[in-house]
Design goal:
alpha/beta; Rossmann fold; Phenylalanyl-tRNA Synthetase, Chain B, domain 1; disordered N terminus
Length: 399
């Protein structure tokens, strides 16, 4: 990433930044991002790279040129990259409620020579998406990348998305999603979190569950193309399917996850009210997360296409992105939750073996087992806690 010093019309120090194939003017970040009038977050470069790949793959499936909306555009970098790099994007609406961001977006659109493709707007994201909810005005792609939760914008996003359109969501409020503030999570996402070793997967499933529940109110179902948890955020890509039948099918994929903190047993059920308060393994009291999404959180074929699109693009973070996508392809179709090897070994007072050894041993026993992108020491498997403990003991010579 190349940065050049300068002064901008925002009244603060600015710099030119190269990302992907675009060049943008952005304020220098001199304090907490939440307090900045407009900011460019370099930590989200991976997210923006992957969004370009996702739009390219979606466009290939849709078989038509796309109208996209970057509803909270800030500097406009994500939407401008759609215009320049995604291919087959005929129109991008770049919106931000802040006048300073709107001025900056116009500068960056001009700089990158995409005035004929981009439309800059300066309004509340809900207002924009509601205004574009007439059939002829709807978007093929809507991207919501707020600071915090996207939940307040989901109703409008669903209305502004055409049948079969792709909705991309970012949530950065990881503390409540991972269980630090359950009341906040319930208010925003309609479900309870759990502070477990797989809390980042619960965060993804809570976000999808919130989307599915919101969309169902409009007789819209969702199909998940791709999701990931990276650093300080979770990201979800979903396709809308209109009709009560599609909405009902989505709702059927909602449920709860039961977790025993005593023995690490976990299970999931679609009957919210049918769960036992006690663990079937040790008799300990169960804790519950949800309601949340229990369906697939990644489509293997779509993610494989993203991997192919990544080749030769020259992204600065290509190695990290390839590893992430390869992990997600492997774990697609796996069951909810995963085991953290050090947690299992800590309970058994054993030194942890290498994660790959645990994966191999479980596969030898006939179980589905892969490493997960959610956690370096995580193993996603259909084995129960007893089988995982047995594998760990065998590897440590304590069986």
């Amino acid at each position: 990433m190349k940065a050049l010093g300068g002064r901008g019309e925002l009244g603060s120090s600015t710099e030119w930044i190269n990302e992907g194939k675009v060049k943008i003017l952005a304020p220098r970040l001199e304090g907490p991002p939440k307090k900045a009038p407009v900011f460019y977050n370099p930590a989200m470069e991976l997210s923006r790279d992957l969004s370009v790949l996702a739009v390219r793959c979606y466009r290939g499936e849709a078989g038509r040129d796309l109208k996209a909306c970057d509803a909270m555009a800030a500097t406009g970098v994500r939407g401008i990259r759609f215009a320049v790099e995604a291919g087959g994007v005929e129109r991008v609406v770049l919106n931000d409620v802040r006048p300073s961001a709107y001025r900056l977006i116009k500068i960056n659109v001009e700089e990158n020579g995409v005035k004929d493709v981009c439309e800059e707007t300066n309004m509340d994201a809900n207002a924009l998406l509601s205004l574009r909810s007439r059939p002829k005005d709807k978007f093929d792609v809507v991207d919501l990348d707020p600071f915090g939760s996207p939940a307040p914008f989901l109703d409008s996003a669903v209305r502004g998305l055409r049948e079969g359109g792709m909705l991309a969501l970012t949530a950065t409020d990881m503390a409540p999603l991972c269980g630090a503030h359950p009341s906040s999570t319930l208010r925003k996402y309609g479900g309870f979190p759990l502070r477990t070793e797989y809390c980042h997967e619960i965060a993804v499933r809570l976000l999808i569950g919130c989307l599915a529940s919101t969309a169902a109110k409009h007789d819209v179902g969702v199909e998940i193309l791709f999701s990931h948890a990276t650093d300080h955020y979770v990201r979800v890509y979903a396709v809308s399917r209109r009709g009560a039948t599609a909405a009902n099918e989505s709702v059927k994929k909602m449920g709860v996850i039961a977790h025993c903190f005593n023995c690490l047993h976990r299970s999931w059920l679609f009957d919210y009210f049918g769960g036992s308060p006690r663990c079937k393994v040790c008799g300990g009291r169960l804790s519950y997360a949800g309601p949340l999404w229990l369906g697939e959180i990644a489509d293997r074929k779509f993610c494989e296409r993203m991997l192919k699109e990544l080749e030769g693009r020259g992204f600065r973070l290509e190695g990290k992105e390839r590893k992430l996508l390869e992990r997600i392809v492997e774990e697609a179709g796996g069951p909810p939750t995963y085991y953290a090897v050090e947690e299992v070994c800590g309970k058994l007072s054993l030194p942890p073996p290498r994660v790959e050894e645990v994966v191999s041993r479980l596969r030898e026993k006939g179980f589905f087992a892969v490493r997960t992108h959610f956690k370096g020491s995580g193993v996603k498997t259909d084995a129960d806690i007893g089988a995982v403990e047995e594998a760990v003991k065998e590897l440590s010579g304590k069986a």
